[in-house]
Amino acid sequence: xxxxxxxxxxRFTRLPNYSFEPNYTEVSGLRMHxxxxxxxxxxxxxxxxxxxxxxxLYRHMIPVCAAAGHRVVAPDxxxxxxxxxxxxxxxxxxxxxxxxxxxxxxxxxxxxITLVCQDWGALLGLRLATENxxxxxxxxxxxxxxxTGKGTMPKAFTxxxxxxxxxxxxxxxxxxxxxxxxxxSKDEKRAYDAPFPSNKYKVGSRAFPRLVPVSPDDPAAPAxxxxxxxxxxxxxxxxxxxxxxxxxxxxxxxxxxxxxPGTKGLNHxxxxxxxxxxxxxxxxxxxxxxxxxxxxxxxxxxxxNSDLLNAAPN
Length: 314
Fold this sequence. Notes:
globular; disordered C terminus; alpha/beta; Rossmann fold; seven-stranded mixed β-sheet
């Protein structure tokens, strides 16, 4: 039995640009919240956030993609947003997050999915897509990767990991602001802090850095290596939309462009922004998703008439 806390609903009242109707589903005995906008019979765009954000991060992208006729599903990971938050760090593992996300996909019956992901949304989403390839038709990654425990992690990540695990001060909205080019308004800061009334609500956000595979014998490393073997054969559209100011993920898109067949011929763009590029270039990020999907026929391949085909990558 997992002990958890649930953020009071009144914490989420009158948040700027976030008037979406709440939706909930149960995964492994925990309540997971998700935004579900746009036509329910349309193919879903699954937007996965990272740490320490929640679906609020996609508030500027959800309406743009929904207005283009897509069903947009943006969940709050367990431990974040309006979803339940286990209070023990050991309750959070890479695999538990994978199981919770697969539970959401199964409960909603999602298929023909376009994955849009950033930060830990990529660590989870890329695994989810490669382990359930038949359910996905396209992938868009911005400032995200899938580490296997090989190579050296950036110094910025090591500093962040130690801060998340050991700092008595863990200011969620300040972290988002530091990771963005823009300055957050008072109400935007209130929105990012809303899910976390006290430290016991922040365990999930502090847990994530310790779950990143940093050595080949990490528990998640074999599954991530297996996922890369699938990605090396992935011929469905795979678009990168990294930003120009992310000290942690900078350059990770180069490996994807080199190894993933589905990246070939697409217009991989570089957006202006920090780590949280949804804050800095949300409209442009959403347009890239819409442009990609506009060129996809029923078979999921990019149309020869699409502007995304044969465009020179940035």
